[in-house]
Design goal:
Radius of gyration: 19 Å
Largest sheet: 6 strands, parallel
Order of helices and strands: EHEHEHHEHEEHEEEHEEHEHH
Strand order of the largest sheet: 2-1-3-4-5-10
Helix content: 25-40%
Structural class: alpha/beta
Number of strands: 12
C-alpha cells in the first residue's frame, strides 16, 4: 500500500511516517511537504496530487492555531474546508481512499458523556466550524472517506507552528515558575500521536469501512489533571492548581467537555492504550525522567 501523506512534519504526520516504517513492509509513506504543495493554493491541489501514484491519501495538513484562527476565518476555510474538498474530489477521480484528520472541537461540549461518532456536532469556534465543514465536504465529494477525529495531541515532533505541545509547555513552565495554574473545568481526551498513528494505520491497512472514527487514547482528564500527571511523572518540583476557564480567557471559546468515545474504532482494531500509558512512553522517549518514587494515581 502506497500512502501519500500531507503534513508530514507535524506531530501526527511525523509519527505516522515513523510508525509506518515499522508497521509493515507492505506500507510505503510518501511525504508531501508544504514546499511541494501549499494547501492554501487550493487550485494547485489536483495537479500536484495527479503527479503521484498512490492507494490512499492521508491529510494531516490543517490550520490549527485555534485562537489565531478566530481572526483569520478565510484562511481557515480555505485550508480546513475547500482544500479538503479538492483532495477528496481528486481521490474520487483517481479511485483511491481519502483519509482526513479532524478534531474534537466539532462538538459543543454540552454533553456529560463521551461523544460518539454519531452524536450531532455543534462547534463553538471558527477552527471547529471549519473542520466540520471539511468533514462534510469530504463526504459529499467522495464515497471512500475515512475521517479520524483526534484531540489534545502530544508527540515527539511538537506541534507544527505552535512551538511544542502541552506536555513540554507544562514541564518548561513548571521548572521556571514552580507553580502552575491550569484550567480544571474543561475535560478532553489527551492523546499520544504515537498511539493515534498506530490506530489510523491499523484502520487503513485493514481497509475498514468508510466512516468517521475517534482515534484517541482511552480515558479522559481535565487540563488540570493532565498537567498534574505530567508534573508528577516527569519529577518536576512544581505545584499545580486548578482554575476555572473564566480565569484564563482566550479569543476562541473551548467546549467544556469534548471527550471522545473510541469504542467504535477499538472494536475493530483492538484496545487503544489509556492516555496515561501514552504519556509515560512519551516522557521516557523525551528523556523526562521522574525523580519521585511510586506511581501516580490513574485518572479516568
Amino acid at each position: 500500500m502506497r500512502i501519500l501523506l500531507l503534513g508530514p512534519n507535524g506531530q501526527l504526520g511525523h509519527d505516522l511516517a515513523r510508525r509506518a516504517a515499522s508497521h509493515s513492509p507492505a506500507i510505503t509513506i510518501v511525504p508531501v511537504t508544504r514546499q511541494e504543495l501549499d494547501v492554501m493554493d487550493v487550485a494547485s491541489i489536483p495537479a500536484t496530487l495527479d503527479r503521484h501514484t498512490f492507494d490512499a491519501l492521508i491529510n494531516c495538513a490543517s490550520y490549527h492555531k485555534t485562537d489565531e484562527v478566530e481572526s483569520n476565518a478565510p484562511h481557515a476555510v480555505a485550508v480546513n474546508a475547500f482544500a479538503v474538498r479538492a483532495m477528496a474530489k481528486t481521490c474520487a477521480a483517481k479511485g483511491v481512499r481519502f483519509v482526513h484528520i479532524s478534531t474534537d472541537y466539532v462538538f459543543d461540549g454540552r454533553s456529560r458523556r463521551p461523544y460518539t461518532e454519531d452524536d450531532p456536532i455543534g462547534p463553538l469556534n471558527v477552527y471547529g466550524a471549519t473542520k466540520a465543514m471539511g468533514e462534510s465536504m469530504a463526504r459529499a465529494a467522495h464515497d471512500d472517506v475515512l475521517i479520524f477525529r483526534v484531540a489534545s495531541l502530544f508527540g515527539v515532533a511538537g506541534a507544527s507552528g505552535k512551538g511544542g505541545n502541552f506536555v513540554e509547555t507544562m514541564i518548561r513552565l513548571g521548572r521556571e515558575k514552580g507553580r502552575l495554574r491550569v484550567i480544571g473545568d474543561q475535560w478532553m481526551s489527551p492523546t499520544s500521536t504515537a498511539d493515534a498513528a498506530w490506530a489510523i494505520l491499523e484502520a487503513v491497512s485493514r481497509r475498514l469501512p468508510a466512516a468517521t472514527y475517534h482515534a484517541v487514547n482511552s480515558g479522559h482528564a481535565s487540563w488540570y489533571e493532565f498537567a498534574a500527571r505530567i508534573i508528577e511523572r516527569s519529577g518536576v518540583e512544581a505545584v499545580v492548581e486548578p482554575i476555572p476557564a473564566t480565569a484564563y480567557p482566550l479569543p476562541a471559546q473551548r467546549p467544556a467537555f469534548s471527550v471522545l468515545d473510541n469504542s467504535r474504532l477499538a472494536s475493530l482494531i483492538g484496545p487503544i492504550p489509556h492516555w496515561t500509558e501514552g504519556l509515560d512512553r512519551y516522557l521516557r522517549e523525551k528523556g523526562h525522567t521522574a525523580h519521585r518514587s511510586g506511581p501516580a494515581p490513574k485518572p479516568s
